[in-house]
Amino acid sequence: MKSFALTAVTLAAAALVWHAVPSFAETARRVPAPTADLVAAPTAAKTETAVFAGGCFWGVQGVFQHVKGVSNAVSGYAGGEASTARYQQVGSGRTGHAEAVRITYDPQQISYGKLLQIYFSVAHDPTQLNRQGPDSGTQYRSTIFPASATQRKVAEAYIAQLNQSGVYGKPIVTTLEDGKTFYPAEDYHQDFLVHNPNYPYIVYNDLPKIKNLQGMFGDLYRDQPVLVAAGEK
């Protein structure tokens, strides 16, 4: 799973590799926003939810906790049954679950389309099939769990737009799974990036995402992350 440690030698070698080839961050900067006709119609709702899976939930949660308009981002599991929504079981890759994050946001401040742009350009690499970085297995798949028919329509159209743009150089493998329940993860997984900024996995895989968010979406970035409050999972 995600318990490995990165030595100084490993980090140095990895840094050389990253400098030798174009990074995903360079590609991400060219990811276009959804076209105007793909953005969901204005709503009077004060809050809405979106559920995204894109590899380890530590980093995905950490990214959206720094986005203005997001009031909560909870790590959890989606795609499987309630009885198997537990970290050790999900890690087997046989439960149907994906590590996911449920985002509660104010649609008056940020659109679902903009959340999708952040998801596809900062939170993860949507061209990696059943893996993300060092983690592999169906539990790390790139998946959107639409909360409504409108969300499905917008996400489906945006994926088509991105594929047509050719920005990634290869097809997007992100799937859409309807009608799946989200189950919050164990307490020790919540706010993991915030509480463990020096953890080697976080330093190498996730902190660069926060930096990219700030650089690419400065108008939407907030320095103080919104944390998972007790009782609000």
Describe this structure in words.
This protein is of the alpha+beta class and 233 residues long. Helix 3 crosses helix 5 and helix 3 runs parallel beside helix 8.
Q: What class do helices, strands and sheet pairing give? A: alpha+beta
Q: Ends: how far apart?
A: 24 Å
Strand content: 15-25%
Any idea what the radius of gyration is?
17 Å
CATH superfamily descriptor: Peptide methionine sulphoxide reductase MsrA
Uncertain segments are 3-22
* CATH architecture annotation name: 2-Layer Sandwich
The side-by-side strand order for the widest beta sheet comes to 7-6-1-3-2-8
- Give average pLDDT, whole number: 88
| CATH fold assignment | Peptide Methionine Sulfoxide Reductase, Chain A
Number of folding domains? 1
Which CATH top level class fits? Answer: Alpha Beta
Can you tag this structure with a few keywords?
single chain; 233 residues; alpha+beta; Peptide Methionine Sulfoxide Reductase, Chain A; 6-stranded mixed beta sheet; two-stranded antiparallel ribbon; 8 helices; 8 strands; disordered N terminus
Write the layout of secondary structure elements.
Layout: H1 8-20, H2 24-28, E1 48-54, H3 57-65, E2 70-78, H4 87-90, E3 98-105, H5 112-123, E4 131-132, E5 135-136, E6 142-145, H6 149-165, E7 175-176, E8 182-184, H7 192-195, H8 200-216
Parallel strand pairs: 6-7
Antiparallel strand pairs: 1-3, 1-6, 2-3, 2-8, 4-5
Helix pairs in contact: 3-5, 3-8
